[in-house]
């Protein structure tokens, strides 16, 4: 029994092994359509399992949390703080991407004529539709005309909007509303139990998803754009360590402790390039970390649209990279215009498929970069997407803790107890 415990690996290590195995399988089955299809289907089934449990958790946790909060003015204050915080962090991320691009000039070392282009037709159509509707369509779309339609299509903001009002309505019923709260609390507990079951197959899902990416791209395709990929990841690390670390310090939060708590989810987010894959576990862990359920359930799902720090870094760095590759010099005023454009478009298109790439499509024309320029980095978009997803997940986790602390909805004793429990578990493993 002791030997079994000694060799038992925690989820993070299992996912990491799955990631390495996926790279090996991708190399072995490079351009093998049969193997790619098989791995793609296995990966899709894993993502579908996660998506199956995301919305019930968001609805149940958010409704219960808002019902317990029960104060419209407090909710308005929390919402205002959250959106202001998101906008500040996203703007910092955009500026950081531009600063790094200006200092290291990644596009200056690229010959666009030697790069292989990729088909981006699917993104072009999405970009046209998103640009035509703009940010006002996003604002109007927050209010669902049919909540069941929003649930079936997985539209996060309309679901959050409905859950907030449903929670407030439940709270207004007083004693009569307790039966709804008890029911939804039980639903959330059931869904978290199912989440734990689904996580047992996460290594297999990760292996399949990584294997598909490597088998489709091939390692040799990365060489010409290797410098850009390395620079993008370095910038994201700088943001997590220094920017997030500095902000966390201002609010008396130990950023390293937070990162240790969500390390398994960061590995999973990296491997799947999907924020949704970790949403249930992040909500659960931030609750255990000491943030009140109401704050966690509101901040994190909202952040999936408004607080995409990793995506913001990528968009600004990629835009400057392409401008440099085409020999287009951008003045300070042009770069400031790019910041403003990205601030608007990133919010207006966050809910569409391939949002980061779609934002680039909608903005590069403003700096004179030809549309075909994006075809050269389309092939590595998935690889960079893995890194920016990690930043998005870490940023939303920190946001929940910061808003919780600012509202005095952070339980320090619960936090210390949870950290001690995790420390003991790590020693046993």
From TrEMBL:
UniProt membrane topology term: Multi-pass membrane protein
Keywords, in A-Z order: Cell membrane, Membrane, Symport, Transmembrane, Transmembrane helix, Transport
An annotated GO BP: dicarboxylic acid transport
InterPro entries on file: Na-dicarboxylate_symporter (IPR001991), Na-dicarboxylate_symporter_CS (IPR018107), Na:dicarbo_symporter_sf (IPR036458)
Gene Ontology cellular component annotations, sorted alphabetically: plasma membrane
Cellular localization per UniProt: Cell membrane
Gene Ontology molecular function terms on file: symporter activity
Superkingdom of origin: Bacteria
UniProt feature coiled coil, ranges: none
Matches recorded under Gene3D superfamilies: Sodium:dicarboxylate symporter
Name this polypeptide is given: DAACS family dicarboxylate amino acid sodium (Na+) or proton (H+) symporter
Species of origin: Liquorilactobacillus satsumensis DSM 16230 = JCM 12392
